[in-house]
Amino acid sequence: MNKLTGIRRLVLDVLKPHHPSTIELAETLSVIDGITGVNIGLYEVDQKTENIKITIEGDQIDYNVVRQAIEKLGAVVHSIDEVAAGNRLVEEVPTLQDR
Amino acid sequence: MNKLTGIRRLVLDVLKPHHPSTIELAETLSVIDGITGVNIGLYEVDQKTENIKITIEGDQIDYNVVRQAIEKLGAVVHSIDEVAAGNRLVEEVPTLQDR
Amino acid sequence: MNKLTGIRRLVLDVLKPHHPSTIELAETLSVIDGITGVNIGLYEVDQKTENIKITIEGDQIDYNVVRQAIEKLGAVVHSIDEVAAGNRLVEEVPTLQDR
Amino acid sequence: MNKLTGIRRLVLDVLKPHHPSTIELAETLSVIDGITGVNIGLYEVDQKTENIKITIEGDQIDYNVVRQAIEKLGAVVHSIDEVAAGNRLVEEVPTLQDR
Amino acid sequence: MNKLTGIRRLVLDVLKPHHPSTIELAETLSVIDGITGVNIGLYEVDQKTENIKITIEGDQIDYNVVRQAIEKLGAVVHSIDEVAAGNRLVEEVPTLQDR
Amino acid sequence: MNKLTGIRRLVLDVLKPHHPSTIELAETLSVIDGITGVNIGLYEVDQKTENIKITIEGDQIDYNVVRQAIEKLGAVVHSIDEVAAGNRLVEEVPTLQDR
Amino acid sequence: MNKLTGIRRLVLDVLKPHHPSTIELAETLSVIDGITGVNIGLYEVDQKTENIKITIEGDQIDYNVVRQAIEKLGAVVHSIDEVAAGNRLVEEVPTLQDR
């Protein structure tokens, strides 16, 4: 049996111009192969840009395809804040060191 | 199989006059095609206006239809605070960067 | 198919005299058509008045009937803090803008 | 069909002498008709009195019977902090106004 | 039908010497009739004593038997912080007055 | 029927040298009779020692066997922060006195 | 019956260079035998390094294999913040001592 090694969640910190809207961005990302759903939240709005948080879930997310789609719309990925990979989506567990 | 690309949730920050009421606004939005439910909360009340938060869920929400319905009642969308799209509604996931 | 456009939840900020009691008010509201349950919490007690929070759930809540029943008992609605309408009760979703 | 108008939950702020104990009070209230369970928590202990919080759940709670049972044991109801009535127990919902 | 009037939960604030240990105390209490489980947490340790919190659940807890077992091991009950009685275990419900 | 009097959970505050590692300690404890699982979290690291928190669950935990296994690896139990015993694992319940 | 003594969860505090990315690291770890899923969160980004938190779940995690895979990619394990071992994954339980 081949193990599934796919990315199951990506959380990205992204800077984008006001246009296209987060709605268009969400629609664009949600139809990419291997993605089952996309959530985009608004961190902060500036005069010319918006800082957004993109949460993507799926069973085989290809980060390069995601990044290219984001850049094609004039936005840029600042950081990859969370990645989950494997047969099962594992959540980050708060430990005693995080308190 | 065609992938569903529909918007599943919209959270809007809206400024409205006191009339029509949030009840009328909720009723108006809740019967739009592709919308299964609407929640309206009150952020702040001013002498002439109310700042409200509209959470809309459905399987194929058309933002343009929503925005026009809002504007027809004399209100205006300040920002789109959250969008979710895809086959499955994905929630925003709190990360280490959000603490 | 006709879409249900009914109000499913109302949260009201209400000022009332000490009598009738919140118990009588809860009983009165709970038997109104379209209402399945009522919760009344006490915000603050003054010498002559009580500031209360009324949460009403149902499948076809008629706000005018609710307001008239409240006023008939000598109380007054200060604000409608939350409304939910539609086929399904949608909860308010906390976003990055609410932190 | 007659609608059930019964009280399903009562939360009472009560002042009582040290005797009888909260255990006796809980047992006394729990056998009253229409009551399925009682929880008594201790807010504060003074030299002669105890300030307690009584949470009562049931399907047809009669407040007058409850109050008389409480007073018969030498205690007094300070305030009714929450009431729920109707076919279904509705919880108080936190709104944007409560933050 | 006779109504069950039994105590279903007791939370006790107890002062005990270091010996016997909380483990022996938990084992002793857990085999008393009407008790299904015991949890003992450590509030504070002093040179000669330990302040502990005992949570007991069951369907017919006899407080006198519990107290005697505690005192037989040299410990003493400071206060009964919570009692639940009735056909069903009712939890304390946070109200607007507790915020 | 004999009542099970076994310990179902132990939470221990332990001081250990850096070696053996928490991984070896977890493996050693997890195979002891009556133990179904072990969790070890890191409170604090010093130059020569580590302060750790051990959560052990099972149906018949023998504390003496656990303590000896811990001491055999050069570590020492500072305090027993929680014990649960009985037919059912009872959780500590937060009360009004804990706020 | 042989008891399973395997590690079921590891939470690691790791320092890594910017390349390879957390995505490559997550993919590499997720295909190791005995691992069912990996989550990597970003604690902090410096000019040359990233401090990350790796949560690994599985039924027989071999820490030495994990550490070697991490080091082969130029990263280093700072501390093992949590380990869970045994037949069942036990969570760390917050006690009165942690408040």
UniProtKB/TrEMBL annotation, chains A, B, C, D, E, F, G:
It holds the Pfam family DUF211. SUPFAM superfamilies: MTH889-like (SSF160363). This is DUF211 domain-containing protein. It comes from Methanococcoides cohabitans. The lineage of its organism: Archaea, Methanobacteriati, Methanobacteriota, Stenosarchaea group, Methanomicrobia.
